[in-house]
Amino acid sequence: MKAMVLKGPNLPFERVERPDPVAGPGEAVARVFTCGAGLTIQHVKAGRRKVQFPRIIGHEISGEIVEAGPGVTGLKVGDAVTTYFYLDCGHCRWCLTGFEPLCENSGGQIGLECDGAYADYVKLPARNFIKLPEGLDHKKHPAEIGVVTDALATPYKVLRRARVRAGETVAVIGAGGGLGIHQLMMAKWARARVIAVDTKPGKFDACRKAGADEVVDASTGRVAEQLLELTGGKGVDVVVDYVSATATLEAGCKALARRGRLVTLGGSGKPFQASAADMLNKEQDLLGSRYVTRSDVLESLDLVARGEVFPLVSVLRPLEEAEAVHELVERGEVIGRAALRING
Ligand SMILES: [Zn+2]
Question: Mind spelling out the 3-state secondary structure of 269-284?
Answer without folding.
Answer: CCCCCCCHHHHHHCCC
